[in-house]
Amino acid sequence: MIPPGLTASVFSQALAELRRIVGDEWVFTGEDVELYRDAYSPLWGEPDERLASAAVAPERVEQVQRIVRVANAYRLPLYTISTGRNLAYGGSAPVYSGSVVLDLKRMNRILEVSEPNAYALVEPGVSYFDLYRYIRERGLKLWIDTPDPGWGSPVGNALDHGAGYTPLPFRDHLDAHCGMEVVLADGEIVRTGMGALPTARTWQQFRYGIGPFMDGIFSQSNFGIVTKMGFWLYPQPEAFRAGTVKAVKHDDIIPFVEILASLMYSGTVNCHLGISSPVFNGPADAAFDALIATLDGGSAAEWDRYAAAHGKHFWETELHFYGPAKVIEAQWSHVQERFAAIPGIAFADGVSYRFPLTDEQISRVGDRVSLGIPSLGIYAGLLPQRGEPPSTGHMDFSPVLPMTGKAILEAHKVFTRTLREGDIEPKYGIVQSFHWRSFILFYGFPVTHDVETNKKIRATYQKMIRVAADHGWGVYRTHAAFMDSAVSTYSYNDHALHRLHERLKDALDPNGILAAGRYGIWPRHLRQDKPRRGQP
Amino acid sequence: MIPPGLTASVFSQALAELRRIVGDEWVFTGEDVELYRDAYSPLWGEPDERLASAAVAPERVEQVQRIVRVANAYRLPLYTISTGRNLAYGGSAPVYSGSVVLDLKRMNRILEVSEPNAYALVEPGVSYFDLYRYIRERGLKLWIDTPDPGWGSPVGNALDHGAGYTPLPFRDHLDAHCGMEVVLADGEIVRTGMGALPTARTWQQFRYGIGPFMDGIFSQSNFGIVTKMGFWLYPQPEAFRAGTVKAVKHDDIIPFVEILASLMYSGTVNCHLGISSPVFNGPADAAFDALIATLDGGSAAEWDRYAAAHGKHFWETELHFYGPAKVIEAQWSHVQERFAAIPGIAFADGVSYRFPLTDEQISRVGDRVSLGIPSLGIYAGLLPQRGEPPSTGHMDFSPVLPMTGKAILEAHKVFTRTLREGDIEPKYGIVQSFHWRSFILFYGFPVTHDVETNKKIRATYQKMIRVAADHGWGVYRTHAAFMDSAVSTYSYNDHALHRLHERLKDALDPNGILAAGRYGIWPRHLRQDKPRRGQP
Lengths: 536, 536
Description:
Largest sheet of chain A: 8 strands, antiparallel
CATH architecture of the largest domain in chain A: 3-Layer(aba) Sandwich
Strand content of chain A: 15-25%
Shape of chain A: globular
CATH topology of the largest domain in chain A: Vanillyl-alcohol Oxidase, Chain A, domain 3
Radius of gyration of chain A: 24 Å
Oligomer: homodimer
CATH class of the largest domain in chain A: Alpha Beta
C-alpha cells in the first residue's frame, strides 16, 4: 500500500529518509506491516478497513522531530501509537488508510519515579506492566492505576481518555496526569505546565504552569505527538475492604443512585464501581424474553414479580474502600447508615487486605486491577463471553449517563430495544463509574471476521450512537471506524466545537501530517472526502 | 483616552455601534471609566498605568456576539471582566491601555443549580455571594467554594486559576469546573464537553465530551469570552473538625512535610492548609534580625536556640476534616499516629461543627471561607497588616513549591534575602496548599499611590520573579503589570510554549481584539512593542 497522494517512488524516497533516521531495522514495510492491523476491526477484510502503509519506530525524541520534518517535506501521513494496544478503539491501525504508523514502543524509558512526591514521568512506550514492575522491584510504596488489560501505555491510554479502577483522581488517567512533552507537527518540542520553566522542580506536581492550560488539546486529537508525560501515583494505602450493597426492587434504583451519587460527590465513596442487576444482567428465560418484548420493556411491577419468583434482588454494587483501616471501617459503616433509608436494603462484607501484599498473596487476588495490579485476566475472563454472534473481538459502546436511577432505567430500555431491532442479543449494559460525576454504560459489541455479520453489527452500532445522542447521552470514546459518526452528534451551533478543532488543526499542522481523522479531525485537504457532518 | 490605532472619530463611531447593541446607559465613557481603574495598580498615576478607554456592559450572550463583531470591524481592543474584582491581579483594568472593558456584570443569571447532582451553571456576572445566597435561601444541601474575598465571580476566578478553602477538587476552581460556553473572537458560540451535544444531559457532569478537551485553553488567556460555566458543588458534609499539628525544631519541617504530603496525596488529608512558623512569621526582635542578617540566614541549630529561648515551637499547620463525623474522627486519629514519628510533635483539637448551621451560628464562625461561606473579612483582618511601606493595596507574589520541607527552607532563605536587598520588610511568606500536589508560597507585596515607592517595589517584585525562576519555582499567577515578565521565565526551548500560545492567538483571534497582553499573549500587530522575551 502507498499513502494516498504519493507516488511509489516518492514514498520509497520518504522511507529511505526514515531509514536514515532510525536505521533500516526500524522501518517496517511489506508483511511486517500486517502486525499493525487492528485485530478487532469491524471493517476486517473490507475495502474500508484502515490499514497502514508502513511503520517507523524511533528510539529518541530527536528522531521523532526528524521524522515529522520528513513527513512535512513529503506530505507523508503519520499515525502515532504508544504500545499499540488500543484494542476495541482501533488497535495499532491508523484512522486514515495509507498512513505510516509512528510506533513509539521503543521510547520506553521510565524517566523518574518519586516515592516521596508520588509521581512518575514516562515515555509512551512504557506499559502498565513495565511501570508496575519498576515500582515493585524497588519496593516503593506506590500504586499505579491500570485499565483492563495491563499491556497498554499510561501515555496512550490517558490521551485516549482511558480509565482504571483505583480511587479518583488516579483512575481517570487524563485527570491524573501532570505535565507533557509534545513534539508539534513542525518538529518543535513544547513542554507544558511547569515543564516550560527550564529549571522546573514541579513539572509533575503542578499542572497549570502560567497562561492557558494546554494539555487537554493533545488528548483524543492529532495536534501533536506526546513524547513524555507525568502521572500522579497513589501512595500505597494501609488497607482495602470491599462491601456489597443490594436493593430488592426495580424502582429502588432511584434512591439507590441518589444516595450513591451523594456519597461519591462528597468523596466518602471514591472507588470505581459497577451497578449491575442480577435480573437484567443474569441469564434469560422465556418469562424474561416475554417481558422484554412488551411495548415498554416491562413495568416495574412486572419486573418485581419476575425477580421475586426467581428469588433475585434487583440491583447491586460492590464498593471498595482504600485507606487507613479505621477510616475505611468508618466509611463503610456510614455508607450502610445512608443506604438503610431504602427498605429491604442488604449489605455483605467482601474481601479485605492489608498492604503490602506478598507475591503469594497477589497470586490469589481475583480482582487485581482494583489494587492497581496490571493483568491480562480480562482476556481469560469476561471477553470470551461475547455472546452471539460468536466474535473475534469487540468494540465498546459507551455512552455517558447522568448519575440518576431514571437515566439508568431509561437507557436500559432504549438500548435493549435498539439492540433487539438490530438482531443482536440484548445483553444489558453495565453501569460503571470511571469519572468524577457521571456513569458510563458499557456494552461490549461483538466484531467478527465475517463481512456480512460485521455489516449488520456496524449498522446497529451506528444506530446506537444516534439513539444515544437523541437522548442526550454522548459517547466518550469510540472505535476509529466510528469517530466521524460519534463526533458528528456533538453538533451544537452547526458543529461549532468541531470547527474549532479544525481551526486548531490548520494552525498547528497545516500540512495535515499527524493522525488524520483521529476523533473526526481531518486536515484541510481531506475534509471534502469525509462523511458529511450530521449524517452519522 | 482613545484606543491606540483608532482615530477619535472612528472610536466615536464604534462606541455608537456599541450603544445600539446594549443601549446608551450601558456604554461608559469619560469619568465613569475611572471606576475601571485598578486601585491596586503598582503603576498608579504613571504613564504606564493600564487604563481603559471606555466600557460596555451587555446583558445577553447575543449582545456579546454583536460586540465582538463590531470590535473586529473597527479593530477595537476589548478586555473582558466578570465582576471585575480581580484585585491584586489587575482588578477591572485592561492589560493593554486603551482597551474597552467588556464588563459582564449584568450577565448575572444563575441558570441551574442541581441539588441531587450537586452542580451549578452560572454566568460570569454571578458572584460567590449571589450563588451562596441562592443556595441558602432555598435550603439546598450544597456548599460552594469561595476564595478571599467573596465578591468575585466563580467564572472569572476559575479562569484566572484562583482557589479557595474547602476540600479538593472544589477549592481548585478550574479543576472543579465542568463545561463552558465561549464566544470566540469571530462571534461564534462554542459549548465545550457535553455541551456540544444539543440534547446533552451531562454538560455539568462530564467534562471531556469527545475529542480534544479544550476548556483549559480559555483560562489565563485571551482566546475567547466565557459566557457560561458549570461548577461541581460539594454536598453539605455532616461534620467538620479542625486540629493543629505542631513541630518543635527547625529541621522538623523535613519529616513534617513528608508525612503531610503522603497524607494529602492519598486523600486522608484533603483540606486547604497553611504551614506557618511561630518563629519566622511571628514578631521580630533584635536577635531575630541578627540571625536573619547572617550569611546563611541562620543555621538550624541557631534557630532552634532562638525558638527555645522564646518558648516557641517552629512549625504548625491547622488541618480541617470534612465528612461523616465518625470518618473524620478516624482521619484525625490516623493523622496523629502518622505524625507521632516526629519527636516532640504536639496536637491540639480545634473547632468542630455539625451542619447545617443556623444564621446565628454562622455569625460566630471566624474562618468562614473554610466552610464555603463568602466573606469580605479579609479586608478587615489580614490585609491592613500590610507592613512597611504603608500601602494602599497589594499584589500577590506566589511561586509554586514542591511539597518538601527542603524547598520551604530554601525558599524562605532565598526570598527573605531578596526582599531585604530590595529594602522591603522581610516578612516570611506563608506556605499554602490550594492545589493537588504542590504548595504556593504567598507573599503579600505592598503597592502604594506613591510613584517612587512603587518603582522600588516593582524592581523587587521583578527580581523575585527572576530569583524564583532561577530556583525552579515559577509563579502561577501575577498582576497584569508583570504578566510578560512572569511568562518570559517559562522559556524552555526558546519559549516554545509561549510561541504555541501565539499560534493559537493568531488562529482564533486574527485581528487581536480580545484582551491583548493577558498572560503575555499579544496579538501579532502588537508583538513588536512588547518587552523582549527573556528580559523580564
